[in-house]
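Below is how a single chain appears once it has passed through the pipeline. First comes the sequence as given, then the structure the pipeline wrote out for it. We keep one example in the README because the format questions we get most often are answered faster by looking than by reading.
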Amino acid sequence: MISVSCPTCGTALRVKDKMAGKTGKCPKCGEPVRVSSGITAEPPAPLAPPRTVPLPTTGPPLVAPPLREVESARHAPSRKPWFFLLLGFGLACTLGAIGAAVFLRPGKSPEKGREPPIGQKVTERSEPAPNKQLTDLVARADKAFASGDYALALSCYRDAIPLANWKDPVLYLKKGRCQLQQQFGATWAVDDFTEAIKLREDFSAAYLERAVAYSHLGKFKEAIGDLTHAEHTLKVAPEEVGKYALICADGFRAGKEQSSARITYDIAIQHNPKSGPAYAGRALVTLLPNDSEQLIADAQKAVSLGVQLDPELTDRLGRAFLCRADAFRKSGQTKRALEAFNEAVRLAPYLEEHRPVFQDR
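Resulting structure:
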């Protein structure tokens, strides 16, 4: 038997003598092995001892990496140079496309010092600016409110408020006015007017409008408080306070708050003595028969100021004259009683049934 070593993997082999001078395959690695003609093949030269590097005597101790990391690094596929070239080319194309899209975006003005794209002027904008959109919305809302389309106006004001960053008190004021025109919208109107006041504490219009909203809710104390604050703190003109006091009084009367309405009509007349509607309104909430003379005086004052008496006030005025006629009758003033009764019948013909009481006897 002949001893031989594989020059590739170093495996020691023993072959028959007849293989001397021939070449065979290593059973382990499959590489060709030349068998010498001698009796015994010379063993391979011993490997040189590995070079050692002296370890540092200072600093943190060196720790060998885990075996798993060594194995994964050993078996990791090697990256070919063309792979990195393709990767870099793809990134460059992506970044170039993004930059072109940003630079050529419609409506964007070219940077200072650069020429605008062909066919585009610096002053032109293909998209409306946010303030332009806000202006258009407010104009549309104002037009809708003026035409009585309060639902559309409310929707437009609601969309405009975010465009103004929720910081425009006038938009909240206009939105609250739209809420007042909606059924059961007084509560939301109070919230809008309050928000306007938070943004501008001296916003007198918001205080006056909130007083109206409070009157729709039957909140007399709050309404009078806002009217008083507008007059004494914000120095609103008395005529303006009187105008809003009249609106509040009408709101209280619509809500059957007769006592609150009467007081508020008094405030309206005090601030604007020439307000015919204020006198007519107070006549509508005056109690009969106790205040029949006050009712007659207010109704006559309203007529002298150009107010046309509506059917409700005409009927109340007729009954007030009936109360006056009855008072004259009881005091023995028969002639004056009959004159008052005739006026009552002229205003309210159904009172004719009471004539026998006032006939001369």
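Residues 107 and 128 are 8 Å apart (CA to CA).

See the next section for the split statistics.
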